[in-house]
Amino acid sequence: MNLKDCYNFNDFRRLAKKKLPAPIFHYIDGGSDDEVTLNRNTNAFNDCDLVPNILASVGEPDLSTTIFGRKIDMPLFLSPTAMQSLYTPEGDKASARAAEKYGTMYSMSTMASFSIEEVAEISNCPKLFQLYVHKDQSITDDLIDRCRVANFDGLCLTVDTLVAGNRERDHRTGFTTPPKLTLESLLSFAMRPEWVFKYLTNKKFELANIKNKTDKGTNISKSVIDYINEQYDPAMNWKDAEYCIKRWNGPFALKGVMSVDDAKRAVDIGCTAIMISNHGGRQLDGSRSPFDQVKAISDAVGDKLEIILDGGVRRGTHVLKALAAGAKACSFGKMFLFSLGAGGQQGVERALQNMHSEIRRNMILMGCKNLKELNNSKIIFKK
Fold first, then answer.
1. First CA to last CA across the chain, in angstroms?
2. How many angstroms separate the CA atoms of 345 and 277, rounded?
3. Which residues sit opposite 330 in a β-bridge?
4. In which domain, by residue range, is 189 found?
5. CA-CA-CA-CA torsion for 291, 84, 99, 301, nearest 10 degrees?
6. Any residues with CB less than 8 A from the CB of 25 and at least 6 apart, and which?
7. How far is the CA of 168 from the CAs of 27, 155, 231, 357, in angstroms?
8. H or E element: which one contains 265?
């Protein structure tokens, strides 16, 4: 099996599983606790049906939309995800180049493998930076200021990770950052010699954006859960979010909004967007899926800010359903990470190509010339 045989999420997942050591694969694949929410994120899309119109003379549909002040060529972009060099040595650079090729947005995590400046230098695609509020405010301020200098288009503040979720797969596999051999992982690393060779002969693992501020997670072996619990501020509140918005003074989203009340408050403090997200089912297990909440939040604040659905997207029809329910765009993480692990930049390009083709084809089948025609009339909820 190779990239040309990858047509959907499960294909990329299978190929990535063959190439990545078990701790790395399961870090992508897993969720928290019993993984109920992880699975619900995708299954929720099955609770509604699309309603097409016929003989609409669609021609070539316009898939473009505007988010964070930038036009993108399709209503789907790469979610911010940490430590991408664990999946391929080029990490974030590969993802940014793939996003640029397909005219969409690349998002960078605070815990990226390459720095804000390194990625800004190699790609002109629209860029979003995902911010965490650290206990040391100078780290937070430094990240915001560097994004401004590097001409990032927007910031999103992740608000659902005050403490790390209970990711039991990571405990079982011995996942750490940087990776280290344990009794649980030794055989898995030994069976992936190509990955081990690339890891040992390329750039040393580091959290490039914070390496000059803290050595936690960079110069010592540390689990990502320990890093989150030690470095992120569990007392973060609305005033902290408002402070970040004012310091940035540009397009800004809260990532992790799941309730109507919080969406309304996001408007009040000056957000231009929200990302409806439960962190890919990796935090609070038993919570609702992002798609479950799109319509109610859109009905309440959809005319006041941009709504982005983040979580569970695996098909073009999922994107169409989210937009019909009131989102302006979607972002996805697991699928592009599996494609990154399966084939580097070419893998991400293949995933974006597949999703673009699905969205375009299904827009034509829906009888929609542009994304504005995907509205509540095009979707029926089963319950």
1. 40
2. 25
3. 76, 309
4. 3-381
5. 30
6. 16, 17, 341
7. 10, 30, 21, 36
8. helix 260-268
Residues 356-361: what's their mean pLDDT? 98
User: Per DSSP, what are the bridge partners of residue 158?
Assistant: 255
CB 318 within 8 A of CB 362: no
Count of domains forming the chain: 1
Residue 110 and residue 210 in contact, taking contact as beta carbons nearer than 8 Å: yes
- Tokens describing residue 201: 């002969």
**Is the CB of residue 351 less than 8 Å from the CB of residue 336?**
yes
Q: How do residues 91-150 score in pLDDT, each as one tens digit?
A: 999 999 999 999 999 999 999 999 999 999 999 999 999 999 888 889 999 999 999 999
- Residues in a beta bridge with 310: 277, 331
Catalytic residue among 26, 134, 279, 356: 279
- Report the distance separating Cα 97 and Cα 368, nearest Å: 30
Q: How confident is the model at residue 61 (pLDDT cuts 50, 70, 90)?
A: very high
Identify which of 159, 197, 196, 160 has the alpha carbon closest to the alpha carbon of residue 181. Answer: 196
Report cis status (omega within 30 of 0) of the bond before 52: no
Residue among 44, 99, 37 nearest 315 (CA): 44
Q: Identify whether 279 is a catalytic site residue.
A: yes
Q: Mapped to the 3 state alphabet, what secondary structure does 168-186 carry?
A: HHHHHHCCCECCCCCCCCH
d(CA 26, CA 24): 6
Tokens of 292: 């479950």
CA-based torsion, 244, 177, 226, 169: positive or negative: positive
Distance CA 137, CA 120 (A): 24
Output the domain CATH number for residue 61.
3.20.20.70
SS3 262: helix
pLDDT for the residue 181: 65
Spatial distance between the Cα atoms of 100 and 230, rounded to a whole number of angstroms: 35
Prediction pTM value: 0.93
DSSP string, 305-343: SEEEEES---SHHHHHHHHHHT-SEEEESHHHHHHHHHH
Q: 331 pairs with which residues across the strands?
A: 77, 310
Q: Which of 278, 319, 339 is nearest to 28 (CA)?
A: 339
